[in-house]
Amino acid sequence: MRIAGWVGRDKVFSFETEPSYYPEYGQSVEVIRLANETELPQVIIKRFTGGAHCCVEQHIITQDRNGGWAMVQGAVLDGAYGYSFEDLDGDGSVELVRSDNSFLYLFAPYAGSFAPLFVEKLSFDEIMDVNLDPAYQPAFRKELAYLEERAQSDPALWGENGFLAAWAAVRARLGKGMAAIDEATEKSRGDEEDFRKFVCPDGSPSSACDYENAIALPFPVGLTVHLIEQGYLPVQPRP
What we know:
This protein is α+β, with helices and mostly antiparallel strands. The protein has helices at 137-153, 161-173, 177-187, 219-229, and strands at residues 2-7, 10-16, 27-32, 42-48, 56-63, 69-73, 84-86, 95-99, 117-123, 126-129, 198-199, 215-216. It is built from 4 helices and 12 strands; from the N terminus they run ββββββββββαααββα. Helix 1 runs antiparallel to helix 2, helix 2 (161-173) packs antiparallel against helix 3 and helix 3 (177-187) runs antiparallel to helix 4 (219-229). The chain is globular, with a radius of gyration of 20 Å.
């Protein structure tokens, strides 16, 4: 799809998305203010790729720091909706709000996976990870309350690794990550076959080696590694 924008009679941008393999699903286009720094609002393109549990591709057309225009690749997200746009910190501008899809299928099948809240913000033509900004602590406290309410209505969740991983991740955003890992380890009913974190024999991410050579980590170790890799836990530099 080709999309172009005009200001008055002046054409200011023209971009083309990659051909869709699922044209019957179509694409959506909306205009919304995501970055307060730019003169003009942004154009968001969403396209459903088709397939089970998949996926929405997203692009954002926005001005850069020099006033030119760029098309930025957003996250490819599970489901059919993509980002939601919410003012989480009450500053009058919206954030790009989504779930962290890296938790899906990791410690449990899809139906048993929980994906924690993930917050990004657009600045000119850069999508920034703002999850560590203290301004979003209330949003993570609300997310934690939601998860614990789910477990209160379904106590079996307290033993399921898919739930415990997301619960520990949200607590990590609130500065309680290591305590949450300890508690998740105590509550877990054990490793779930075929749903564990894998690493290469030298400790590098599993994408760096053949699947047959990868090593499955026990749940508490795999959870710790994943939280570090995804930025939920700080990495202490060696002295």
